[in-house]
Design a protein that fits this description.
Structural class of chain A: alpha/beta
CATH topology of chain A: TIM Barrel
CATH class of the largest domain in chain B: Alpha Beta
Helix content of chain B: 40-55%
Structural class of chain B: alpha/beta
Distance between the termini of chain B: 56 Å
Oligomer: heterotetramer
Number of domains of chain A: 1
Strand content of chain B: 15-25%
Number of helices of chain A: 12
Subunit structure (chains A, D): Tetramer of two alpha and two beta chains.
CATH architecture of chain A: Alpha-Beta Barrel
Family (chains A, D): Belongs to the TrpA family.
Radius of gyration of chain B: 20 Å
Largest sheet of chain B: 6 strands, mixed
CATH superfamily of chain A: Aldolase class I
Bound molecules: pyridoxal-5'-phosphate
Number of strands of chain A: 8
Pathway (chains A, D): Amino-acid biosynthesis; L-tryptophan biosynthesis; L-tryptophan from chorismate: step 5/5
Shape of chain A: globular
Strand order of the largest sheet of chain B: 3-4-14-9-10-13
Protein name (chains A, D): Tryptophan synthase alpha chain
Radius of gyration of chain A: 17 Å
EC number (chains A, D): 4.2.1.20
Number of domains of chain B: 2
Largest interface: B-C, 49 and 49 residues
CATH architecture of the largest domain in chain B: 3-Layer(aba) Sandwich
Strand order of the largest sheet of chain A: 1-2-3-4-5-6-7-8
Number of strands of chain B: 14
Order of helices and strands of chain A: EHEHHEHHEHEHEHEHEHHH
Chain lengths: 267, 401, 401, 267
């Protein structure tokens, strides 16, 4: 049961958070909005909007493929951020977290980046390769702009778990198993203990990601954490519909997508 | 004082740091502690130096290039012969240091990235020698181009893991090695091949390569009354250059790092990171890199696989910014010409990487006085480059007689 | 006393001498006088040792093979690392000595024979370094098989002269080099690559290679209380073995020379000159050789081009006859297995030639006590053999993981 | 003008010696006898009968080719020696010198070798790779059997010229130019000086070989020495007739041969 406040009250549900991840521009900006709408329909609470990157250190092959498709379609950090108002127009109401590697942010510049986030009504930002020790300036800027800076903790963060968890904003991203994003078939008992520890320190909801790929996982995570983050699995569903999208059977692809997501979240 | 770099956060001035997924922060911390302990431990240092000497064949020679000096006129040319190292390049110095550290940390498995295969071979070699399991990540494109080194690693007992992501080259192999490490850091040691990556790698690799400069300093004093006026080293990730330069940073010696200008720095095909790149984050470190306007890392180009890297060690970025080291860029053709000249005059076929340093030096020595001396780091031997050299020189040498 | 060999006629016991066309008697006499003078000249010896050290990278390491020792059980295995020599084998030691002598004699042109190309590369290398013109005679068949080394010699500025006579292999290349020398002895120095040929070559080459044994003796004393119980070296022409053995001839050390048994000494395909050959004359020297009943020299066979020679140095013939050295023969397959074992346990890929010595030692050490030590001469590195090794091991290593 | 005695009086001519060289068994033993007869017809004084060898260090490509043909036809040292009585039967009367490399001799053994030479009525022996310093035992055996041991001197034999020339038997083989056997177009002035020196010491006729390939050479040599030794040139003439021999036009080939030799010797 979720009791903590997050995203300045925009996330108000009391049941478990469902935080899906899609890559902006995979396979096109238009389709990303369509998928976002379907995810919202299926109960998504927060959307992680991934910015495709040439060298995504923390991502597995599925998300790498998605990034490649999106880059080919011309997506960039700036365009991904500018996609958010477009989403709003078409009905996406849930908070959006921009998920981007640090280098593109650096090229825009910290100040300009946050101005851009603010101007486009982005609620949160997650930078997977900017750990606590390197993120002070960015965290301060995020605070100034009242944008949630999402932190991650991992089982091997050890004495840093407390430090990271205590300053968490928006929600805290728990890496359930060591490893890059991807689908795995079993949840790790140790990981569950770790979640317990994190929850004890965190002022915000604790969501678990990395490796959640079926309803069993979702149930297991929801028994212990405040929410699930699902990335690779969703990308794979999108991937399986690519052919239909290309062949003008967009509607059918989206129906399939909704059905699969429903199944994933509700069994 | 230069020597205090990197600072406690792993910064060399504005550069360096640890820009890595959270899951690596623990392992990096563990590595740093172990490294700091080891480097204070006389027994560890003794073993490292013992292995360098009785296994790798150190000290490597300091050779006076009398014939090439006569040929060019000007400053006297000395060559530091890392090509004489076991496995044929300076890469082994670092691989030995890290493998010993891995053992000390109780890690029985190492992983490594490789482009042309030199660091992969060095890693596979130390894995064999120290009884470690070894996985080498290598881009599929590079596997195709470097069949021989792939076989060599396998013969040494290493597993070569093809990387198909990105363009299937060094940058992607490094990404993949890091990803694998993220997932398997508990019992795996990641053996990085240059002064790149997150802190403490740039410092660690530099310190395991400084033996090049330490030896050179000592050897030079034995044969010349004064230090060399200039020292040249090629720069890919930057490890042979850092290893050579480091002990000279506070000496009155001009230091020259030489990048790969490929087909020219005014073309898109080069790997001249400092000359043409901009600051950014690559492989966990804030440094210079080659990228497009959106911050996407671009594919570099150089005829020499070892310089074909879009980033550069953060300490070099700092030495560039602080102007302590001068950085130049040499084209494929200039490097090949220098390689041929050294081969014909000195009977030493250098690696094409090293030939970049030679080329820059050869440009400059004729303008220097005969009283001056210079030192060039010959980072490796050219055996690995024979296929490339044949492509370029076969006709020429076939018609020489 | 052994050290007085060869006698004034160039005899090692019954073997040696000068069986050459009359036209070569003058040049051989000239060579002998110049050599004797040079070897008495402090300045010459100093230069020779200086070049060995500051150019070739000597002393080469003495490596304790801890892992292979543990793997096999028994005597402790030490490796003399001639593979770390510049250009990758012991051949350079001799080439340096002879090139310096050529210069001293005022000969600006050298000729050399080569089989696999190792001695050719060494000769081309010293020719480049000392500014000599260089012609390398090489059988057409070998040129086809060793494309890379041919290119390397040419890149070094040497002319490679294809020999089509006979079977187009090393024996024929040597014949042709001698013929060319006969016609051009006035201004040409013939740089022979092993302890073969007419007097004074076997003595000269041995003396330019004894640095291997001299260093080993000194290095061994630094790490072990007693001399090695046995020393192993492969024998083609026999130069690395003679160089290693010579300083130990009067010590209490068992010396083991290892020939190539090819596909087996009971087949026609081998190069086990002492095991299966008979005395006769080849390339100007009375020694053992492989021949048919009519005294026609037969073509040897070994997987390793450097051992694929139908004769053997006359000093070996003498040491064989006098039983001072034990000679054994190792098959292709045994050598390959030993090569693989050393690679996997020690991270050293030896030349297939050297692997013959390793194989014999590896057979014996398990039967020796752990208090004993042995020394193996790793005459060269395996880089040159990669194509052959790939043929033999590719499938195996590809399926290892 | 020849005044010295050689070959126990068998060479009695007072004009210049003509010493041709053929390879036994090139292209067959029968043909070798035929060529020997033709050479005798054309005035040959002594026949050098070459034994084919696998590794003929002192021979150029022409003689190497001949040796290869003869080896292929099964020739050996023993068979070459045994060919001599056959020659005699068919009319060859001039002295025969067996020209062989040392290794085949060694394999037969010194004593057996000389027994064989004696038994087959061979008058002389020449071993090109057995220089003076290595030949003492062989020279003594030859003396015992009254077989001429032919020595060679070269321009670079220097102080050894006197030593070798003074002990010469049969005739003394002067290497006119440095180099292996073969055809050259010019005679060397230095070589002529050298011949003069040799003649001063030699108790036997001094013949010049290596490189004599036309009538001009022959004349030049005959102006200074006691005779000419001709090898490669003769082999080339034989070679040019090989096709005819193979095609059953043996007689024609032999006629051509005689004509060419006549031309060579008489212009
Ligand atoms: C011989 C040689 N030199 C230089 C380099 C470049 O690396 P670094 O700049 O780290 O010395 C390489 C890399 O493989 C190499 O093999
Ligand atoms: C590495 C190596 N070892 C041994 C040999 C055999 O020569 P030797 O018997 O003269 O040492 C060779 C000849 O090429 C060689 O290259």
């Amino acid at each position: 049961m979720l009791t903590k406040t997050a995203f300045q009250g925009k996330v108000t549900k009391t049941n478990q958070l469902f935080i899906p991840f899609v890559v902006a521009g995979d396979p096109s900006p238009e389709m990303t909005i369509e998928y976002a709408l379907r995810l919202q329909e299926q109960g998504a609470d927060i959307l992680e909007l991934g910015v495709p990157y040439s060298d995504p250190l923390a991502d597995g092959p599925t998300i790498q493929r998605a990034a490649k498709r999106a880059l080919k379609a011309g997506m960039s950090l700036r365009k991904a951020i500018e996609l958010v108002p477009e989403m709003r127009k078409q009905g996406v109401e849930i908070p959006v977290v921009i998920f981007t590697y640090y280098n593109p942010v650096l090229q825009i510049g910290h100040d300009a980046f946050f101005d851009l986030l603010e101007a486009n009504g982005v609620e949160g930002v997650l930078i997977p390769d900017l750990p606590f020790e390197e993120s002070e300036e960015v965290r301060n800027l995020a605070d100034e702009k009242a944008i949630e800076f999402i932190s991650l903790v991992a089982p091997n963060s050890e004495e840093r778990i407390k430090q990271i968890a205590e300053q968490a904003k928006g929600f805290l991203y728990c890496v359930s198993t060591l490893g890059v994003t991807g689908e795995r078939n079993e949840m790790n008992a140790e990981a569950l203990n770790f979640i317990k520890e994190v929850k004890a320190y965190s002022p915000v909801p604790v969501a678990v990601g990395f490796g959640i790929s079926n309803y069993e996982h979702v149930k297991l995570v929801n028994d212990h954490a405040d929410g699930v983050i699902i990335g690779s699995k969703i990308i794979r569903v999108i991937e399986s519909g690519l052919e239909k999208v290309e062949n003008d059977a967009k509607e059918e692809a989206l129906q399939d997508f909704s059905k699969e997501i429903k199944q994933l979240m509700n069994g | 004082m230069l020597q205090v770099f990197p600072d406690i956060k792993g910064r060399f001035g504005d550069f360096g740091g640890k820009y890595v997924p959270e899951t690596l922060m623990g392992p990096l911390q563990e590595l740093e502690s172990a490294l700091d302990e080891a480097m204070e431990d006389e027994a560890f240092l003794k073993e490292y130096h013992h292995v360098l000497q009785e296994y790798a064949g150190r000290p490597t020679a300091l050779t006076f290039g009398d014939k090439v000096t006569k040929h060019l006129g000007g400053a006297k040319i000395y060559l530091k012969r890392e090509d004489l190292n076991h496995t044929g390049a300076h890469k082994l110095n670092n691989a030995i240091g890290q493998a010993l550290l891995a053992k000390r940390m109780g890690k029985q498995k190492i992983i490594a990235e490789t482009g042309a295969g030199q660091h992969g071979v060095a890693s596979a070699t130390v894995a064999a020698k120290f009884g470690l399991e070894c996985k080498v990540f290598m881009g599929e494109e590079d596997i195709r181009r470097q069949e021989l080194n792939v076989f060599r690693m396998k013969l040494l007992g290493a597993e070569v893991i093809p990387v198909s992501s990105g363009n299937g080259t060094l940058k992607d192999a490094t990404n993949e090695a890091i990803r694998y490490w993220v997932a398997n850091c508990e019992d795996h040691f990641y053996l990085i091949g240059s002064v790149v990556g997150p802190h403490p790698y740039p410092r660690m690799v530099r310190n395991f390569q400084r033996v090049i400069g330490d030896e050179s300093l000592r050897q030079f004093k034995e044969v010349e009354p004064a230090l060399p006026a200039r020292i040249y080293a090629c720069v890919g990730g930057g490890s042979n250059a850092m290893g050579m330069f480091y002990p000279f940073l506070e000496k009155e010696v001009e230091l020259v790092g030489v990048e790969a200008a490929g087909k020219g720095i005014d073309t898109p095909e080069h790997a001249a990171t400092l000359s043409k790149g901009t600051p950014g984050v690559i492989h966990g470190s804030l440094t210079y890199l080659m990228q497009d306007e959106n911050g996407q890392i671009t594919e570099p180009y150089s005829i020499s696989a070892g310089l074909d890297y879009p980033g550069i060690g953060p300490e070099h970025a700092h030495l560039f910014q602080s102007k302590r080291v001068r950085y130049e860029a040499i084209t494929d053709q200039e490097a090949l010409d220098a390689l041929k000249l050294l081969t014909e005059t000195e009977g030493i076929i250098p690696a094409i990487e090293s030939a970049h340093a030679l080329a820059q030096a050869f440009k400059e020595v004729p303008h220097m006085s005969e009283e001056e001396t210079i030192l060039i780091n010959v980072s490796g031997r050219g055996d690995k480059d024979m296929a490339t050299l044949m492509e370029h020189f076969k006709e020429e040498v076939d018609h020489a007689h």
